[in-house]
């Protein structure tokens, strides 16, 4: 039987009251700390036992060959895999010469707390050694949001009852052994990398140690250093030693009952592709000195102040479901950790919490994570888009290899090169190019950042528009077609005129032409010919959007609704995910949907579909969507809420929000699902809040499910801070600063200012029968309210 971790339901903490070794790997992901630059998995301080050790630096990877039995032109030759860099978390304890190891002796108490407001991981343990000596151990760990290169640990040990000889070994360890990744046939699986670091320098002096390495194949320089402050009774001693893969500071003392030894460990990390070994060494030593000068208490204070400001602008408050309230804040915290200090680096699908998907970034970033960041931390959204822009030369070359104009961005990558060895679900998923363009348009709409559009966004819009004009063609009926591509649904590949792809490409072409008109001089610098924007507009106007008149629904792609429907009744419950039990050949030619595709198009291009079309489409695709992707539930929640199925949307919200805390897909051990966690926010804000951008304003259509009594969310829009409060009866719109702005509430236009919040009643939802899902794939009924089960 598979178990998921058990946590107390609290509004601002994830608390584990007892250590369960069977779910240790999952909790290491959940308790991970990061800042977008450094990531530390929530491994125990002493390092053992562990599910999967992990210390990551954003964009530090090594290369591995991609082997093909039948290679072909244009196939990527090498893959990139995130590596476990130098581990600075390790603090080993010996009590009267016996190692503190929770597998031996007797563990009488163990608690871990991820504090979402303090930004720390706390641990408290009481342990009795096999010889009978009891000690209390307390540690607090942080990865700094304010000092990008810095992490720190406060570690205290106290004997209970009798005096004890105490030895603490604080270590830096490179190339530590890792367990083999679990077997998977998912083409987005995880590869194993052994001993990827080559030593270039090691040193130790006083209480400070430093290791400098270079990755074997990718040639990236990586430096790590540690320093310490030690507080102990007279007679406490410390010494330092180092080797190519090890730095160690050993502290020895004798503690009487009631006395404590406290060690504050400061860590600094840096990496570079170009800088010299000496420059990297100097960088981490400088960061270490700054951290030591700030001190432990200073780092804690900075961390709390940073998070106070974040929560002030990003918090979502729920009344009625304490479990989802906790989960949504947990998700926001992990998204912050994935993006806050990335600073023009990618946001991987697992953040910096684990090695899942080889540490790659996908379309998930632009389609799920950036909508949240654009509304809560717009600078982080701009940073992620600048990373995409930095990879533009690689994308231009990739398009050239494919015989196309413009830029072909990779399906999965770390540094911008395509790493997908399975091209039907990789290269053919061209929609990622329009997803990037959509994120640019969304960011500019939300921020009015004209400089960004001119200097960064226009490049991305122009080159992706050129791709669509090159990839598609005008048929004999005057329709602009895009054939042989893969949409978001990975159970349908190489389809003609995927509606999601065509609608997003249409928007890409049109908005690129509009941006060129706003920035003609910059467009000229990019070589945009006078007639090029008009050609884009013509293609957009002629874009073919299939529609099945017989069924009254939009087919996911041309001819999709004519395919045989998957035999769901004959599919055993243990045969999901389907890709692990059925060949892609069978999946690709049947009506079965891994994750929302046409339904996702209705979210991003809500202007294209009528209300009746949305309801019919949603009902049709619910019956064939199996949610074998973590990206599913959040999107389905939004459209369910829009068509009046608020209770079904509530069920999907719970699935998306609790995906990692309940380990619903049994793979949280590889890292948390950043996009799915963002999907829970999208379900609340775009689903139950009804948020949609339109023109120069925002449109809201809030409506709550029975299980939530009150919803409060915060947004940033064009330098204004907004707070929206919704109950079943009414919605209150409260701008907290800025100029007056016009918005709409269920289609009713209104203007509000910071001095005058506006309240409007909420109309009843349309009455429609609840749609069905494939047998056995119904979402779990959401019955948890305020810590107790309620009738479903």
Question: How would you describe the overall organization of this protein?
Answer:
- The protein has about 800 residues and is α+β, with helices and mostly antiparallel strands.
- It is built from 17 helices and 35 strands.
- β22 (about 475) and β23 form a beta hairpin.
- α5 (about 380-390) packs antiparallel against α7 (about 430-445).
- Mean pLDDT is about 95; it is low at about 785-790.
What's this, in brief?
The chain is of the alpha+beta class and 792 residues long.
Please list the strands of the largest sheet in the order they lie side by side. Answer: 1-2-10-11-12-13-20-17-16-15
Secondary structural class: alpha+beta
Q: Name the helicity range.
A: 25-40%
- Give me the count of strands: 35
Please, what is the average pLDDT?
95
Proportion in β-strands = 15-25%
Low-confidence stretches: 787-792
Shape: globular
For the biggest sheet, the summary is:
10 strands, antiparallel
End-to-end Cα distance, whole Å, is 25 Å
Instruction: Please report the number of helical segments.
Output: 17
Q: Evaluate the radius of gyration.
A: 27 Å
């Amino acid at each position: 039987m598979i178990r998921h971790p058990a946590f107390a339901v609290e509004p601002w903490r994830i608390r584990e009251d007892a250590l369960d070794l069977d779910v240790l790997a999952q909790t290491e992901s959940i308790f991970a700390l990061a800042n977008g630059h450094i990531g530390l998995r929530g491994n125990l301080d002493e390092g053992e036992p562990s599910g999967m050790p992990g210390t990551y630096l954003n964009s530090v990877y090594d290369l591995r060959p991609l082997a093909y039995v039948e290679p072909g032109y244009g196939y990527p030759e090498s893959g990139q895999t995130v590596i476990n860099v130098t581990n600075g978390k390790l603090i080993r304890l010996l009590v009267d010469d016996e190692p503190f190891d929770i597998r031996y002796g007797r563990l009488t108490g163990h608690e871990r707390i991820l504090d979402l407001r303090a930004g720390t991981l706390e641990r408290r343990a009481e342990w009795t050694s096999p010889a009978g000596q009891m000690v209390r151990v307390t540690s607090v760990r942080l990865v700094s949001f304010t000092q990008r290169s810095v992490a720190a640990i406060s570690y205290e040990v106290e004997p209970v009852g009798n005096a004890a000889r105490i030895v603490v070994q604080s270590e830096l360890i490179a190339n530590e052994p890792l367990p083999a990744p679990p077997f998977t046939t998912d083409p987005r699986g995880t590869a194993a990398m052994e001993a990827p670091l080559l030593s270039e320098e090691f040193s130790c002096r006083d209480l400070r140690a430093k290791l400098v390495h270079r990755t074997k194949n990718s040639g990236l320089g990586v430096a790590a250093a540690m320093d310490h402050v030690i507080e102990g009774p007279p007679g406490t001693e410390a010494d330092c030693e180092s080797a190519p893969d090890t730095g160690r500071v050993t502290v020895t003392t004798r503690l009487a009952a009631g006395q404590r030894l406290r060690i504050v460990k400061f860590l600094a990390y840096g990496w570079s592709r170009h800088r010299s070994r000496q420059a990297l060494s100097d960088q981490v030593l400088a960061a270490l000195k700054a951290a030591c000068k700030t001190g432990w208490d200073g780092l804690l204070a900075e961390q709390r102040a940073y998070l106070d400001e974040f929560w002030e602008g990003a918090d979502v408050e729920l009344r009625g479901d304490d479990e989802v309230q906790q989960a949504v804040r947990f998700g926001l915290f992990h998204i912050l950790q994935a993006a806050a200090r990335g600073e023009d680096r990618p946001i991987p699908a697992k953040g910096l919490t684990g090695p899942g998907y080889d540490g790659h970034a996908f379309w998930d970033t632009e389609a799920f994570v950036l909508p949240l960041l654009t509304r809560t931390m717009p600078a982080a959204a701009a940073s992620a888009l600048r990373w995409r822009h930095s990879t533009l030369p690689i994308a231009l070359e990739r398009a050239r290899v494919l015989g196309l104009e413009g830029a072909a961005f990779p399906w999965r990558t770390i540094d911008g090169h395509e790493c997908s060895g399975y091209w039907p679900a990789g290269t053919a998923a061209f929609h990622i190019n329009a997803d990037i363009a959509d994120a640019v348009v969304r960011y500019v709409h939300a921020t009015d950042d004209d400089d960004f559009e001119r200097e960064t966004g226009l490049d991305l819009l122009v080159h992706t528009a050129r791709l669509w004009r090159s990839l598609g063609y005008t048929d004999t009926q005057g329709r602009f077609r895009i054939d042989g591509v893969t949409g978001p649904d990975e159970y349908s590949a190489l389809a003609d005129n995927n509606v999601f792809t065509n609608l997003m490409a249409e928007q890409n072409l049109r908005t690129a032409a509009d941006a060129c008109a706003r920035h003609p001089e910059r467009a000229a610098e990019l070589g945009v010919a006078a007639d090029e924007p008009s050609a884009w507009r013509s293609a957009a106007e002629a874009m073919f959007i299939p529609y099945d008149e017989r069924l009254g629904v939009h087919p996911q792609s041309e001819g999709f609704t004519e395919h045989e429907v998957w035999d769901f009744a004959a599919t055993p419950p243990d045969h999901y995910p389907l890709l692990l039990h059925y060949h892609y050949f069978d999946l690709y030619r049947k009506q079965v949907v891994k994750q929302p595709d046409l339904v996702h198009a209705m979210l991003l291009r809500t202007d294209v579909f009528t209300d009746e079309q949305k309801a019919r489409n949603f009902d049709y695709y619910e019956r064939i969507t199996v949610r074998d992707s973590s990206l599913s539930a959040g999107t389905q929640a939004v459209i369910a809420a829009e068509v009046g199925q608020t209770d079904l949307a509530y069920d999907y919200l719970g699935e998306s929000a609790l995906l990692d805390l309940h380990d619903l897909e049994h793979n949280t051990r590889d890292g948390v699902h950043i996009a799915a966690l963002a999907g829970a926010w999208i379900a609340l804000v775009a689903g139950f809040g009804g948020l949609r951008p339109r023109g120069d304003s925002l449109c809201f259509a809030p409506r709550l499910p029975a299980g939530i009594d009150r919803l409060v969310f915060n947004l940033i829009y064009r330098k204004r801070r907004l707070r929206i409060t919704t109950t079943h009866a009414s919605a209150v719109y409260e701008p907290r600063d800025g100029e007056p702005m016009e918005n709409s509430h269920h289609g009713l236009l209104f203007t509000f200012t910071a001095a005058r919040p506006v309240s409007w009643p909420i109309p009843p939802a349309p009455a429609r029968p609840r749609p069905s899902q494939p047998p056995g794939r119904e979402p779990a009924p959401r019955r948890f309210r305020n810590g107790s089960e309620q009738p479903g």
